[in-house]
Structure formats: structure tokens, C-alpha cells
């Protein structure tokens, strides 16, 4: 284990990234545990307020992110300070993205259906950083050979092609695939080949006069959402807690 860590993490200069990812995940999990205890009225924890204003944990998260980010830029990639800044940055990012939905909606939607976005973004961020830690580079530059890497034209061409793939996938309404295709070009290729989601810009433009393709896209999206929406919601509830029922459901 020590040899693997030295060879694959320390020598390539990825230790700060590993520390940041670890701090990010742990901070998010600990924060969720504390907020769930507060919600249940258990434990010694409580909401922080000053002058009648509820201080959300995104506020210290922004401070930690700024301090850690600027500190990392100033310290370089190696040394104790760089590692410490990476931890501070990861903690701040964990606090900020835990309330991503609040920032997106400019409202306290932490325990609502809209609040699920925070959990989704955190999981997505952790997965992408994990892929980068494993050696994947954005836009498939890691797939370029050493000879091609010395040729700027080859690198630029690879970046442009993979960027276009990512944009096409995004136009097809497949946001998650588009994000992952930035790291893994094969995902982008699969997304380009597959049908677009109904309602996406691609479907509105190219399926308007193709009723068969429009029907196939709608049917595929229905079966996919039906298959994965349940497991995805249960996974989000396990990590972040179950949202409060909506008023319409309470009346029923």
C-alpha cells in the first residue's frame, strides 16, 4: 500500500488532490450527519444564528474555499503548506456544495425535493475528482501518446474533438454524460450515438419532422427514468436524508 501510494500519488504530485478529495467527502458526510441530528432534535448541535439571521454553513464554506484556494496557488504543489491548503479547500468545497441547491434557488430548500440537487452535485464532483486522481485528464489528453503530446496540433485537435463531443451530448439533454465525457471521451462518443432526450435542444431541432425517432426517444427516456429514478432517490436519501413531504402530498 505504501509503495502504491508513493508511486501513484506522491511522485506524480497528486497528494494535494487526494487530501482535498478526502477532506471534501468527509466534510460533506459529517455535515449531513450533524444536520440530520439537528433536524431530528438530537445531540448537542443546533442552528447558528446572529442578530436573528440564520448563518448557513455555505458561509464558512466560502471562506475556507477562498483561503484554501489562494493558499494552494501561492504554495505550489508540494510541501506541508500545499497539503494543508488542499485540506482547507476540500473542507470548504464540501460545505459549499452541501448547500448547492440553496445557492441555485436562492432559497432554503435543504430538506425539499429541490435539495436533492446538492447530493447529486457532491456525488458527481467526488466521482470526477476521483477519475482525475486515477489518471484521467480533461478532454482525453491522457489518451495522447508521448509523440503526440510533443505536437501541439495533436493535443489541440484532441481537446477540440472531445469538447465538441461533450457539447453535442449536452445538446441531447444528457447532462451527466456530458460532464463525464470531459474526463472520459468514450462516454461522449456513446452519448453522441444514442438518442437525445425528449425536450432537449437536439430533439426539438432534429426530431420535429421524425415522429418515429421522437417516439423512440420518449419511450427510451420513460423506461430509463422508471428503472433508475427509484434506486437513485434511495441512494440520495441514504446519503443526504429524506426530504420533507410536499404540501400537496401532505393534503393527500
Judged by helices, strands and strand pairing, the structural class is mainly alpha
Low-confidence stretches: none
- Tell me the span between the first and last alpha carbons: 55 Å
Strand numbers in spatial order across the main sheet? 1-2
Which outline best applies?
Answer: globular
State the total count of DSSP E strands.
Answer: 2
The whole-angstrom Rg is 22 Å
Mean pLDDT: 85
Helix content: over 70%
Approximate strand percentage: under 5%
Q: Topology as H/E string?
A: HHEEHHHHHHHHHHH
Main sheet attributes: strand count, strand direction, barrel closure: 2 strands, antiparallel
Number of H/I helices: 13
Protein name: Integral membrane protein
Keywords: Membrane, Transmembrane, Transmembrane helix
Transmembrane segments: 15-34, 55-74, 80-106, 118-141, 153-171, 178-196
Region (Disordered): 233-252
Descriptive report:
- This protein is mainly α and 252 residues long.
- It has a domain at 12-43 and 55-135.
- It is 71% helix and 2% strand.
- The chain has 13 helices and two strands; from the N terminus they run ααββααααααααααα.
- Strands 1-2 form a two-stranded antiparallel ribbon.
- A hairpin with a 2-residue loop joins strand 1 and strand 2 (53-54).
- Helix 3 packs antiparallel against helix 4 (80-98) and helix 6 (116-133) runs parallel beside helix 9 (175-183).
- The longest helix has 30 residues, at 211-240.
- The model has no long low-confidence stretch (mean pLDDT 85).
- The chain crosses the membrane at residues 15-34, 55-74, 80-106, 118-141, 153-171, 178-196.
- Residues 233-252 are annotated as: Disordered.
- Keywords: Membrane, Transmembrane, Transmembrane helix.
- This is Integral membrane protein.
